[in-house]
Amino acid sequence: MAVTPVGSATWRDASYKTIRLAHSLQLRPFSTLPSTETSQGKIKQQDEKTQRKETTGPQPTPPPFHRDLIASSCNAYARDYMRETRSSVFILRQALWETDRHIQRLQKERDILERSHANTRRDMLTNNETLQLRSTRPMTERYPDKVDALLQEERNGLLDLKRHTERQLHEISRQLKVLYSHRQKLSEFCKEKGRVLDIISENARPQSHGQKTPGGSTLLGPENKDCQAAMKDARSTRENFRKTQPPNWQKPLDCAELKDSVTQGLRKKAEESSHIRDDVTLALGNVKNIIQRQQRLYQEMEGSYQLQLGPESSLDLSVRERLDRPLVRILQRHPGTQLPESTLICQGSASLEQSLGKARDQLGSLHVAQMKLQEDQDNKLWGERIDRAAARLRTKSTKGQRERLCL
User: Fold this and answer.
1) Radius of gyration for the chain, computed over Cα atoms and rounded to the nearest angstrom
2) Beta bridge partners of 208
3) Among 208, 283, 314, 360, which is least packed, fewest CB within 10 Å?
4) d(Cα 99, Cα 92) in Å, to the nearest integer?
5) Least confident of 160-169, 206-215, 369-378
6) Do 121 and 162 form a contact (C-beta atoms < 8 A)?
């Protein structure tokens, strides 16, 4: 049950007003003590009040420990500033580390591309040397073949790969220059902000156990627009470079396959030359046997022809039978009994002479064929040796175990 007051409200309010006045007078001398909020915020509030030069009333009398209180507040502000600076340095170093890692990746790609470019130039030199070496073949071995087409295709592919690698190297050099400038800026900011961390013996991480880091680094806020701009530019640059197309590594593989196909083609051409040379050698042996048989037959036919001609004089002792022998003279006593012996002898001699002429022509043709086969055999041997030498040159060039060819 509520108790109804008896006294008047004015009388009661006057008493409580006196109580509140006494209470305020009791607390006023100690109003300069630090509150529960951070000393850094207190100092900032005091700075703002000093700049505004606003006075809300008579200043209270400072306590006896005023100097110690100010030193403690300034030390707390310095520690908070260094803690936030350390957090900023950590973020800057992280951005610097990411930039360095991207630079290292680009440097590795550049080294790979430089080696690929050097290998491409070496392969182009090997291609030219192969063409020069094959140009020393005999004229009969210079007919266009698949190896020539493969060599031309390899040359075109190497030229395309060389231009592609040079474009990639130029692009990587441009990206590295941009990243070097960003790294230089970030490094300078790290050094500048690290100058206030010389006397701090705490961990370099932004937070440590038992210690609270102020939320939101003020050093990366509006007061440090240069740092924010540098990190933002570095991050955007890395993202843009990461989205760019990497080098097309399939082209070196295709060129390697084409180079192997050229080497295999040279070996196959050498094997074909070897097989054809074996066939030419067999044909040359058969032609030599035929020439020997034809020469023996020609000599026998020539001796028979000489015998058919008979002696040069009737006084020759080797004359066996004469056309005016007694038997023929007795037979010729009757008219119309002429023997065709002389006519047949003349016809046989003429036919034998004609056969000797054909045999001489055939021997001449056989000798010409023998010379051509011998020349073709030598040319095939030289072509085989040159193709095998070109294949060995390309194999050693791939392994890097040879000197350059000098022709």
Assistant:
1) 57
2) 211
3) 314
4) 10
5) 206-215
6) yes
- In Å, what is the CA distance from 330 to each residue of 249, 320, 324? 111, 19, 10
3-state class (DSSP) for residue 211: strand
3-state class of 128 per DSSP?
helix
Strand partners, 211: 208
What is the predicted pLDDT for the residue at 33? 45
Instruction: Quote the tokens at residue 18.
Output: 């006196």
Degrees, nearest 5: CA angle 239-245-250: 145
Q: What mean pLDDT do residues 353-369 have?
A: 89
Q: Could you identify the residue written with the tokens 């430089």?
A: 114
For residue 122, give both structure tokens.
């070496």
> What is the Cα–Cα distance from 264 to 272, expressed in whole angstroms?
12
Instruction: Report the greatest alpha carbon distance in the chain.
Output: 211
- Give the pLDDT score at 228: 79
pLDDT in tens, 254-297: 677 888 889 999 999 999 999 999 999 999 999 999 999 989 98
The rounded Cα 179 to chain-centroid distance in angstroms is 24
Size (the chain), residues: 407
Q: What is the pLDDT of residue 241?
A: 80
Six-digit token string for 324: 């005016």
The residues, any chain, with a CB within 8 Å of residue 277's CB and separated by 6 or more, are 377, 380, 381, 384
Q: Which of 93, 88, 107 is nearest to 179 (CA)?
A: 107
Classified as helix, coil or strand, 280 is helix
Which pLDDT does position 291 carry in this prediction? 92
